[in-house]
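pasting for the record
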Amino acid sequence: MSEAVEKLTKKSEDPSKWYLQLVRMAKLADYGPVRGTFAIRPYGYAIWELIQADLDARFKATGHHNAYFPLLIPESYLKKEAEIVEAFDPELAWVTVGGHEELEERLAVRPTSESIICEFYSNWVQSYRDLPVLINQWCNVMRWEKVTRPFLRTAEFLWQEGHTVHAMAEESHEEALKMQGVYRDCFYEALAVPVLTGVKSASERFPGALETFTCEGLMGDGRALQAATSHDLGQNFSRAFDITFLDEAQNRVYAHQTSWGFSTRVIGGLILVHGDDRGLKLPPKIAPTEAVIVPIWRGQSKGEVRREAEALYSELKDSGLRMEVDLDEEHSPGWKFNEHELRGVPVRVELGPRDIEKGQAVLVRRDTREKEFVERKGMAQRLHQLLAEIQEHMLAQAMQFRDANTRHAGTYKEFKEIIEEKRGFVVAPWDGTGEAETRIKEETKATIRLLPFDRQEGKDLVSGKPGKTAIFARAY
């Protein structure tokens, strides 16, 4: 594996090549036979399972329930909401034959599930007593993307999509904001990714939504990643799908709705935010292996060291840690060190004959590569503490990078120079017009990533008209 690490392109030299190599070398994913499809390998899927478990617990703590809806959507359902059809039509995959018979109606492989879920909700919701409906589903979706990259943009991907129904406009608005906050907490607390939160501009808003709230992360190459979104749909879908109910005054009225989603693209974000020239760096809370024991034996010490390593593994695992013990006899300890660094294991536990004599082991951090000697009797407690320290340090590092790469532009010339030479987030006033937004996108390839909740007044750098703060960046 030391040979493999040496072949890994440096992140600073070619981030794109580094990323693609790392996905394969760390055994996160592999290319599928159909363009844009990928197999998520066990290690990559274990990361997803930990993220999923964290987020699912947060959903349930806020009163949401999981369900599942059909994969195939009749074309007539999609056509009920014009903006959905227009937005997703270029990305739709269609089923036109079933068995040996042509279907009377084309079926879309779900790109998102608003249309089919709304059809069910129109039957399930009849009275104000049926509200709110707070449902989430974990599933796969398909979007026929032209340019794909593992995790970041794929034809098929895994995600969750929440779909809720409410009696009042204020309730759906509050729900959309609440779920943005749930996502934000997951990013900060579990993934150690310090996202910015705000509102999308009208051109970046989800089709059919009144407002889209977003979480935007800054990747290590200075590009932004839309990490999760939450939409206040108002009554747009309930009117299209006739989702009505009798209110307390026995008037039949249209319901208000939200939808919100988070996908496996966050694994790509984790790689780009935390990875370095030696491979992955995983925050402990979502690392499949929090610590790996690497026994170091020579000659006659092999049997004793192996036994002690296995005993230590059992002790640490029993304390609630996700552990591995590397008993491979074909490779040297140095080879193993490089392998586990490439995989992003947060802590390496080194155990040799002298360590056994002294009743200790060596703990090596993946994030800083610092070493410390710890007594065996206090090993479990110290390892739990160290993992918490690593989690906190990785978030602090990511915040420092984000803040250092968030710049204010005073002129359009300065704006273009920052985007071209430094990238990152650029803070500048926007006059709220599509003309200024489109010109910036065409001339710099930067888009409005979000409108902050607290916006400052200023003059638009393109039009010179009064405007308010927007945050721009080139994005994945």
